[in-house]
Amino acid sequence: MPQLTCARTVTAALALLIAGAFLPAANASAGTGAPPAASGVWQVDGYGTDVVIGAGLLLEYQTTAVSCLPGVSARPTGRPAAGSTVWTDDEGQVYRFRPGSAPDRAVLHLDGSAGDLRLRRIAALPPGCGAAAAADPVRVFDVFWATFAENYPFFAAKGIDWQSVRAHYRPLVHAGMGDAALFAVLRDMVAPLHDAHVSLDAGRVGRFAAGRPGTVPPGPELDQQVKDYIRRTDLGGLPFHEYARGRISWADLPNGQGYLRISGFGGYTPDPDDPYAGNSAVLESALDTVLTPARTRRLHGLIIDLRVNGGGSDALGLQIAARLTDRPYLAYAKRARNQPQDPTRFTTPQPIEVRPADSVTHYTGPVAVLTGGSTVSAGETFTQALMGRPGGALRVGQPTQGVFSDVLDRQLPNGWSFGLPNEEFLTAAGTTFDGRGIPPQLTEPVFTPAEFAQGRDSAFAAAEAALSGL
User: pLDDT digit string (tens) for 375-400?
Assistant: First the structure.
């Protein structure tokens, strides 16, 4: 199933269960018009995923034409309403199952995600699910290649012929090859995609991830370097208040503007496995402290700095956007590739709205958003969510990284894991910014060697000036 940040790991499933062996008989209410029970086998529309619910477990199976491997496992942790169930995995990810519009339809929501997964009840898992999977190099290669072939949406846009990739690399794979050689083959297959949401984790053998050429991946060292630079260059000793373990920062500027820096949409608590609800609560508290009614009324402009932002939960970005409008509006529409043989087929787009936050004062004045190549994933979906904001949001800096989809985390038969995107985030006009990133309206250098050497922050200065002129 999709995951919610750029740096997640997949919970190991309980592979000891034989597929279907623990399931009760088919739901007696099927075909009677009664809401479906959770127990049974459900196929996710898109995502190469089947979900099995029964005997106190929710089990994910990751499927391709050549494989069916166990993935995430979760246990029940709540039943908020009739027919609905709540499940939580070992990493704290919460899954909310609820009945759909018909007895054989249901919906699964992952806390922290924007949008839902649509489920259809099926009679059984594909043949071979639950059986021990061969882990030889050829089998590993085939699962890896097929997962991209059936789920990756951007081969045409990136000029990659995936069939030709298979024809070139599969003859290099054989039963006796070592792990290092196999890792090199898989890495070399996906490196030309230049996609920051593509990754390969082979444990001690190696790890691979790479972004768009010419961009710098966000990380703790870059974040601290830039934060210190902003303190010296832009704020000049002004009080700089930090929240959410330093991932959210605020300063009142002398010209009546506010400066809000966000380096990620998650990691707001000391526990790396803290569920979405914990991060949301910390964010809400920070926003209450920063956007007080008195400050909101007197602000003459707001600069939101996302230039070093490693992503996280899209829903946390929507939570901030909800403080910046007094009217609902479309943030984006979300769809996933759902036809393994046809890369042009997608699920019906789900419209995702920004709705004004309840019981708070909303800031509806001018906003400028600072972006660059180190603005990644949820940092980009938040930027996109502000594009339709009533009153707008001026984008200043450089194009964002160009990766929007939740990461589809997958397992390989030999225990390695990898990730890839399978979704598009659409504008109101039906276009996407995948690959190229969201472009700025005012182009300025962002943390270049020349900017550092000369003690300048051109994007910050341009945003200040633009807001002052409004």
Answer: 999 999 999 999 999 999 999 999 99
Nearest CA among 197, 208, 126 for reference residue 379? 197
pLDDT digits (tens, 9 = 90+) for 2-35: 764 443 322 333 222 323 333 333 333 334 333 3
**C-beta separation of 354 from 379 below 8 A:** no
* Cα-based distances in Å from 326 to 98, 300, 322, 329, 356: 30, 17, 8, 10, 5
User: Coil, strand or helix: which one is 127?
Assistant: coil
Q: Does residue 377 contact residue 218 with C-beta atoms inside 8 Å?
A: no
User: Mind giving me the DSSP string for 400-456?
Assistant: -----SPEEEEE-TTS-EEEEE-EEEE-TTS---TTT-PPPSEE---S-HHHHHTT-
What would the pLDDT profile of 196-225 be if each residue is shown by its tens digit? 999 999 999 999 999 999 999 999 999 999
Distance in angstroms (rounded) separating the CA atoms of residues 198 and 155 = 13
Average pLDDT in the 358-366 region? Answer: 94
Phi, psi of 110 (to 5 degrees): -100, 120
Contact 257, 300 (CB under 8 A): yes
Q: For every residue of 233-282, which 3-state class applies, written as one string?
A: HHHCCCCCEEEHHHCEEEEECCCCCEEEEECCECCCCCCCCCCHHHHHHH
pTM, to two decimals: 0.92
Per-residue DSSP letter, 375: B
**Alpha-carbon span 425 to 435, nearest angstrom:** 12
Average pLDDT score over residue span 57-69? 96
> Which segments of 57-154 are extended strands (E)?
57-64, 67-78, 85-89, 94-99, 105-110, 117-122
Cα dist. 72→82, 148, 423 in Å?
A: 25, 19, 20
Report DSSP letters for 165-189, one per residue.
HHHHHGGG--TT--HHHHHHHHHHH
Average pLDDT over residues 268-292: 92
Mapping DSSP to helix (H, G, I), strand (E, B) and coil, where does residue 72 land? Answer: strand
For strands 394-397 and 367-371, give the pairing: parallel
